[in-house]
Design goal:
This protein is mainly alpha-helical. The protein contains nine helices and two strands; from the N terminus they run H-H-H-H-H-E-E-H-H-H-H. It has a two-stranded antiparallel sheet with strand order 1-2.
Length: 205
């Protein structure tokens, strides 16, 4: 715990949240780094070995990143309170996934959230009924097909935008505004690329 940076004061937190909403990515990194102590505190409730601690720290940090990206400063709650829930949710989701067959891909696992806090799942792209066991087996194949088509059916720019937008392949997810800034294009153009990519993928299902 001593190796982690000190938490932000209320005033510092408000300052960096404001900077982040204005598009300052450095402020985002500071908000993440200065809340790592919270991750370390929460994972103590779940870890049983030192090996677990390392895994849970990585998993909890993903939850923290999602919290920073989706946090609404207008709500009367501290970032730490909101982040604690996101961190615990990420760890509990990991426990659920561990019960599944190794390397199994689930359509129900979130692949990211947008700035408004809306959870994005793979079945948002593959629109079909998932009730019976046979259909679930078919859908697992569809997920593998989906990832293969991301690589083969999309243009390089569509592929890049989709990976960044939805955090595919366990990468960090970004808002349309962040992607636009990184790629040097307009936010509306990012939106058009994203919609075009999703329509291409839906054609295969």
């Amino acid at each position: 715990m001593n190796s982690f940076p000190q938490p932000l004061t209320t005033a510092e937190e408000q300052y960096y949240l404001q900077k982040y909403t204005e598009g300052d990515l450095e402020a985002k990194h500071i908000l993440i780094e200065r809340n790592l102590r919270l991750v370390a505190h929460i994972i103590k409730k779940y870890q049983t070995t030192e090996e677990d601690a390392e895994d849970f720290l990585s998993i909890g940090t993903i939850g923290l990143i999602k919290a920073v990206v989706t946090f609404d400063p207008e709500k009367s709650v501290r970032l730490g309170t909101y982040a604690a829930r996101c961190i615990e949710n990420e760890i509990l989701m990991y426990f659920r996934s561990r019960k599944k067959t190794s390397k199994e891909v689930s359509l129900y696992e979130p692949i990211g959230t947008d700035r408004e806090g809306n959870e994005i799942q793979l079945f948002d792209i593959i629109e079909t009924d998932t009730d019976d066991a046979h259909q679930n087996a078919v859908l697992k194949q569809d997920v593998r097909l989906l990832y293969s088509k991301v690589e083969s059916a999309l243009s390089p720019r569509e592929r890049l935008v989709l990976k960044m937008r939805y955090g595919l392949y366990n990468e960090e997810e970004y808002t349309q505004r962040e992607i636009a800034k990184r790629l040097g294009i307009s936010r509306s153009y990012v939106s058009r690329i994203e919609k075009s990519a999703i329509e291409k993928l839906r054609a295969f299902f």
